[in-house]
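Section 3.1: Structural characterization of target chains.
Under the original work plan, the team committed to producing a structural model for every single-chain target entering the pipeline before any wet-lab resources were allocated. The record below documents one such target. The sequence was received from the expression subgroup and is listed exactly as submitted; it comprises 314 residues.
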Amino acid sequence: MQLVLYVVAMKVLTSALLLLGCLSLSAQEAWVSLSKVGGFSAWKGKVALFKVQEEVSQLPLEFRGPGANSFAVSNAVKEENGLLLLEIEFKPTTERGYFSAELVVGSGDGAQVVQLRGVATAALEGKNEPPLQELLDALGANLDAGGKDLSLDSKATKIGDSVKASQFEPVGDGAVRLTPLARYSPPGDAPFGLAIPNGKEFTLQAVGSLAATTPARPDAHQTLRPPLATGAPNVTVVDAPKRFGLFLEAHKYTSLTFPGKSVGAPIKHTARIYPVEALGGKALQNAYIVGFEEASNGDYQDAVFLIEGVKAVK
């Protein structure tokens, strides 16, 4: 149900805009990522496009692609300097699946294109959940998760585009940013943070928590862009340690990015680390996607984070 939105106007984007959990990013391509759980109302997202010449009443809007019928514009507002705000709704035509389309805004040389992606699930939890590959595709990550099934290999050293690394080193000024991208796990608070090696032990430094479900957000544990307990879109760690992994205090055990170190885990690899060069149309540097497993099936989408400002090391 929750919407993840990375959006940028093609050709003319000049600034970034944060709107209700929907992020406009400086990039070459507009991109919208949404998710919906059957039986729950879908969230709507806002698209910001710049230097739009036409007035709203005369603005051509055309949906194209195999999933065109699963998206709609529910509102449009034209502001100063040609700024157009579009509200996008995800209305999947089937209760389960991955949907892709594009929205062409305007016509001729002034036309702008917004890529639309959606992930629909029939109900909460269990086998209803989408595989990690669908989530990566919806986010525009252009990564091979290691398979298209819900359960992935939890024994192999690496799968798909993942790397053998287990920890990170900060780059630049030492500031590290963690952004939750997806969560498909049992409900409840889920603290996460830095796992700092200390001999054979680890010091766990919590930096945030994925929020528990509420009547207003009954899908908080089964969504793209899951909410943080603070309500912020991400967490920045200033002056991160020289070497650290990540942890997720999950439903059954504390999952670590260090293979074989998660106490009580029935599998060796409770996390996978994927280098990512682009996300939702935005080019990235020194960035990785980390997917956690909190049980034993190796879906690696119990919590999925983007970590920026680091390089991965063994």
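Residues 162 and 274 are 4 Å apart (CA to CA).
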